Amino acid sequence: MATASSSQNTDWQDRYYHIDQVLDKPGPRTDPAFLAGDGVKDFLRNQAKILVIGAGGLGCEILANLALTGFKDIHVIDMDTIDISNLNRQFLFRTKDVGKPKATVAAEFIMKRVPGVKVTPYFGKIQDKDDDYYMQFNLVICGLDSVEARRWMNATLVNLVDPENPESLKPLIDGGTEGFKGQARVILPTITSCYECSLDMLNKPTAFPICTIANTPRLPEHCIEWASVLEWPRVHGDKKLDTDDPEHISWLYNVASARAKEFNIEGVTWSSTQGVVKNIIPAIASTNAIISAACCNEAFKIATSSAAYLNNYFMLIGTDGVYSYTFEHTKRDDCPVCGGDSLELSISSEFTVEQLIDLLVEKQDIQIKKPSLSTPTSQIYLQAPPQLEASTRPNLAKKVSELVPPEGEVTVTASTLPFSLSLRITYT
Amino acid sequence: MKQAMSESQDIEIATTAIVTDGQPDSKTRRYDRQLRLWAASGQSALENARILVISGSATSTSILKNLVLPGIGHFTILDPANVTPADAGNNFFLEGPDSIGKSRAGEAVRLLGELNDSVEGVADTSSLEDILAKNPDYLLGFTVVIACNLENEVLEKLATLLWEEEAGPALVVVRSAGFLAEFFIQFHEHAVIESHSEIAPSLRIDKPFPALLEYATSLDLAGMDPTDHSHIPYVVILVRALEDWKKSHGGLPPQTYAEKKSFKQGIQSMKLKYDEENFDEAESQAYRCWTDTSVPSDISKLFQDPALSSLTPTSAPFYHLVDALRRFTQEPPHTLPLTSALPDMKASTESYIHLQTLYKTRAEEEKKRFTELLDVPLDDALVDTFVRNAHGLKLLKGKKWGALDRDPGDLLKALATTPKELAIHLSLSALASISAKHEPAITVEALTAEAQALLPPGTELPDEFDDAVGEIARAPTADLPNTAALLGGLVAQEVIKVITKQYVPIESYCTVDLVETWTGVVKFA
């Protein structure tokens, strides 16, 4: 089989000397279905179309690796612009690029550095794109720092699966890092455990009770939260706090410092103020390199069948030696995205609707902000639009048991999630 | 008072960044996300480090990228080769066909240099053989030397040279072929004070210091204002409850399951109102009353180190500190020095800050005692860091590169303990031996024979070896971009730990299998 003409323009002799060694013959563990040689190279270099979500710490690495391994039609989505604090790891950006869109700058850099690779950037949100857009790709790799965006992407790809059409199943490879730690995983929507299935593995975000912040501060964080959550709105009214604006951080720092001094609390600094209000997660080039390489290696193996792909979760901890754990995360039958069963929830018959909402927000395996609730026949509480919110608000104080029969079904939705959660309520 | 000031400043510097008031400068902003991991002290160590990387391969530049970005002081790429078409295809720090025929070191240094203006990069086109023969001292001027897929003979010479110099640079040996890889760090020893251990130091509730005991026992619990009562920190509740318990139990803490249960019930019965959360917290932390605060075994093992029995004023400060710690623990209450790190707990501001002040004052006193036990004067900031991190101290003893392959006994142990990790190591060792012979074809049979030659006669190779050796024979000279990038991250991470002396680097071979996506460590001790 001849190599298609489109890559002949830019591929020089021996360009793929290294990669072709694993594409020209199988290894001992390679699936017998692997077609070594020109066929697999043609698919990788001329047909495969891959989408990268995020052009930040992981995204920069992912784009470079994909380009070098021979993917030539790469798309990238990112809604952010470049900040100076990105430059310690996002190696496609320079000081002169600060303020420009990440997706665009990254795409241009890759195309300049790796001849013949086409990178199509989109500076915007993943939610701007519809199913038809996502349908065009063979694979999706996520390098995101947001749980919400991952849940959206995961649910979108699960919903895209049409059992009649094998092409509709898009493998999703997801990476994430925090300091010296990270994880990479392969999700085959509807077939393996999905992002939503493993939500309870996430660390619970630290939240400080408002009464501690207001009345009994003990830690520098309590003083900083007081400045941002209580003092900022009190002093500035409707003016929105911009955590990227150094002047705003300085204001919070001064206010928090004064409060800390009043209470004899030590340790409020400009840097800790910024860390708390922006929820900054430490990030370094090396961890991003490890996780991105693991993700891209999976993409390469899936696209070429040259070796088996990860089944299905790789976790790395680099603080004490190099510790990693590879395991199969199992699918949850009651996963609201990929499972068929409703989630069983047992509550007291005295529970009010408001308490149920608080419980849903709290629960680690649900993590839903501002949920709306309904039964198959009626609306219990809707967050929006304002008229419906007002008309359903009286239900908040009512007992759930007055509105939902035992074993009754409640559908939970939220504007941030492209899926609904089905609960089966029982009473104690 | 003055001492308390300096301590709080040290804590601020260590836990945040360079700037403690006002907006940070542009350098602090650039490095913000990493300063939160290794602080200004780690950053300064990086900026003073000099790295030598041998060869400008894809793996070499991937490693360097992750050291240039965080701001290493200096790097040299030593590589006499010119860029081949194959290099231009798999190395991001070459400019495709435009770089072909040019110096590989020169091109890579130029493109890596663009990542960070404050890093100095040098391209050296000499051959390592020449340097070893004519100017070996040049190699000793680096902090860390990294060798990627270097031929056995010259690698052995390099490893020996660096090993013979007690305080010479650490050597990182990296090998890869296709989907498999390994690396090893050669060093004599590596002491870590700031290991960033995730284990919190003891609050010493079982052995309360006098001021804490005095405070806990002097509180008039029954006559107290109910609001104050619901804001007593759990530490104080537990110290009080334990003291009362001991009075009626022959001076012993709760020991049996029944006693512990009854102790917890006792805490619940101290409540004035059912919703006093501080007492619930005390109950959930009650195990601290019967968890003996003593010197952790890892730390007392350090006291046996031969270096302590031959201390001289010029011995490394670490040993003087460990020796002072040893003497400190010989005095009652036979614990490590107290740290002032107090976790958050249900409490009023006043009661919490009061408790915190008790801990801080006592920690200062114990630090003072510790300092008196030091044989040599040491910088106060160093003593402070040591005392605060004493519960997580690490002393790694390294080995010379290649020692494992010369010890069939250790290889057998490793084969039994970590067979799949050792399979990768043996395959890569076998590949290096064969490559040195410049044979035309690298076959599974030839590789297996080389591996077998390292082991005692008749040793059966595990099934994992077939998997590994087959992959090596498939792609013996492939420096795959993803493997290179992953190694680039892992190796740079370990080099950062070695240079900053923070966190804990690996002690043996780290092996990587990117077919099944795992990393492991060869174990033979």
Automatic annotation (TrEMBL), chain A:
<dbReference type="InterPro" id="IPR000594">
    <property type="entry name" value="ThiF_NAD_FAD-bd"/>
</dbReference>
<dbReference type="InterPro" id="IPR030468">
    <property type="entry name" value="Uba3_N"/>
</dbReference>
<dbReference type="InterPro" id="IPR033127">
    <property type="entry name" value="UBQ-activ_enz_E1_Cys_AS"/>
</dbReference>
<dbReference type="InterPro" id="IPR035985">
    <property type="entry name" value="Ubiquitin-activating_enz"/>
</dbReference>
<dbReference type="GO" id="GO:0005524">
    <property type="term" value="F:ATP binding"/>
</dbReference>
<protein>
    <recommendedName>
        <fullName>NEDD8-activating enzyme E1 catalytic subunit</fullName>
        <ecNumber>6.2.1.64</ecNumber>
    </recommendedName>
</protein>
<comment type="function">
    <text>Catalytic subunit of the dimeric E1 enzyme, which activates NEDD8.</text>
</comment>
<dbReference type="InterPro" id="IPR014929">
    <property type="entry name" value="E2-binding"/>
</dbReference>
<dbReference type="GO" id="GO:0005737">
    <property type="term" value="C:cytoplasm"/>
</dbReference>
<keyword id="KW-0833">Ubl conjugation pathway</keyword>
<keyword id="KW-0547">Nucleotide-binding</keyword>
<comment type="pathway">
    <text>Protein modification; protein neddylation.</text>
</comment>
<keyword id="KW-0067">ATP-binding</keyword>
<dbReference type="InterPro" id="IPR023318">
    <property type="entry name" value="Ub_act_enz_dom_a_sf"/>
</dbReference>
<dbReference type="GO" id="GO:0005634">
    <property type="term" value="C:nucleus"/>
</dbReference>
<dbReference type="Pfam" id="PF00899">
    <property type="entry name" value="ThiF"/>
</dbReference>
<dbReference type="Pfam" id="PF08825">
    <property type="entry name" value="E2_bind"/>
</dbReference>
<dbReference type="GO" id="GO:0045116">
    <property type="term" value="P:protein neddylation"/>
</dbReference>
<feature type="active site" description="Glycyl thioester intermediate">
    <location>
        <position position="211"/>
    </location>
</feature>
<feature type="domain" description="E2 binding">
    <location>
        <begin position="345"/>
        <end position="428"/>
    </location>
</feature>
<comment type="similarity">
    <text>Belongs to the ubiquitin-activating E1 family. UBA3 subfamily.</text>
</comment>
<dbReference type="GO" id="GO:0019781">
    <property type="term" value="F:NEDD8 activating enzyme activity"/>
</dbReference>
Automatic annotation (TrEMBL), chain B:
<comment type="pathway">
    <text>Protein modification; protein neddylation.</text>
</comment>
<dbReference type="InterPro" id="IPR045886">
    <property type="entry name" value="ThiF/MoeB/HesA"/>
</dbReference>
<dbReference type="GO" id="GO:0019781">
    <property type="term" value="F:NEDD8 activating enzyme activity"/>
</dbReference>
<comment type="similarity">
    <text>Belongs to the ubiquitin-activating E1 family. ULA1 subfamily.</text>
</comment>
<protein>
    <recommendedName>
        <fullName>NEDD8-activating enzyme E1 regulatory subunit</fullName>
    </recommendedName>
</protein>
<dbReference type="InterPro" id="IPR035985">
    <property type="entry name" value="Ubiquitin-activating_enz"/>
</dbReference>
<dbReference type="GO" id="GO:0005737">
    <property type="term" value="C:cytoplasm"/>
</dbReference>
<dbReference type="GO" id="GO:0045116">
    <property type="term" value="P:protein neddylation"/>
</dbReference>
<dbReference type="InterPro" id="IPR000594">
    <property type="entry name" value="ThiF_NAD_FAD-bd"/>
</dbReference>
<feature type="domain" description="THIF-type NAD/FAD binding fold">
    <location>
        <begin position="31"/>
        <end position="148"/>
    </location>
</feature>
<dbReference type="InterPro" id="IPR030667">
    <property type="entry name" value="APP-BP1"/>
</dbReference>
<comment type="function">
    <text>Regulatory subunit of the dimeric UBA3-ULA1 E1 enzyme.</text>
</comment>
<dbReference type="Pfam" id="PF00899">
    <property type="entry name" value="ThiF"/>
</dbReference>
<keyword id="KW-0833">Ubl conjugation pathway</keyword>
